[in-house]
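Structure ticket #2291
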Amino acid sequence: MVLMDRCRGLASGAFARELVQKQVAKLVQLQAPVASGEGSEPLHQMRVAMRRLRTTLIQFESALQLPAAVNDQRLAKWVRRLGLARDLDVLRERLEDGFLPQLPAAELKALRPVLRQLRRERQLAHGHVVEVLQSRSYLEGLAQLQRWLKEPAFTSLGEQPISQWVLEWQGPAVSGLFLHPGWQISKDSVQKNPAETEQLHELRRQLKQVRYLLENLAALQGAATEPWISRFKQGQELLGEWNDLQVLQSAIHDQVPGRFEDTLPQLEWLLVQHQRHCWLQWRELVDELLPQRQRRRLRLALLAEPLPAGPRSWLGAGLRHALAWLG
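Resolution: structure written out below.
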């Protein structure tokens, strides 16, 4: 409650500055371990920090006066360049840690070319990551962000109390989330029309963005949005796993001659089972989130005002629960 009260006393620009400072500090801390290739986790954390920084700057754009070197186009480029190496890490780890221990010797032998190719591509991708981290564009952008954090500049909107603008800072991404066509895609449909896989990938990105938007404001909204953040994270992870399995299957197809089911029958069976399980979990989540009553509950959660602790606080909470039930 003390943290919530302090945050609600901040202006929008000052609140956003604290979020930016947190992500910039992570980028600075992770630069050395990522550049030296110290495992996959530092790269993962840096990619997340960059994505969160980008989301925050987009979310609070109208409250901040940022230097010219800090712009969405440049941030998006950094995220993409780090993304290739991270995606290769995910594929390799999923194959080596998840599937290889369950395969017979013959299939392990057949997969050696795949593993060699993934390692070669990962080495090349690491070189691109190092180029980004040592580039003038990245170093200049990071330096300007650090200078701005010392002497931040805000718009007139950024000088106003954030407590008066929470709903607006949640952004149009939240209100338009359930209009995305990816929610309506069935398994039969995506199998007949592979182009719909891209729609699911886009929905995954939107779920991640909405989750970051809400997490940025969590200190202001208390527990009201916590269940939704958790559900959106679950959906993002399920769609991510679905996509990873498809990409992995395609990568193996490209490296292993002959029919997949003949050369790698056990792996083919495992991939199919994992995809089926992932899809069933995703559709269960869709059935939970998409009904009108649930969408109304989300709107009520976004509108909810955190109440101070005290003997009357149960009344406001009870009223909100009743409205949610009626919705």
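Closing remark: The chain has two domains: 1-160, 170-327.
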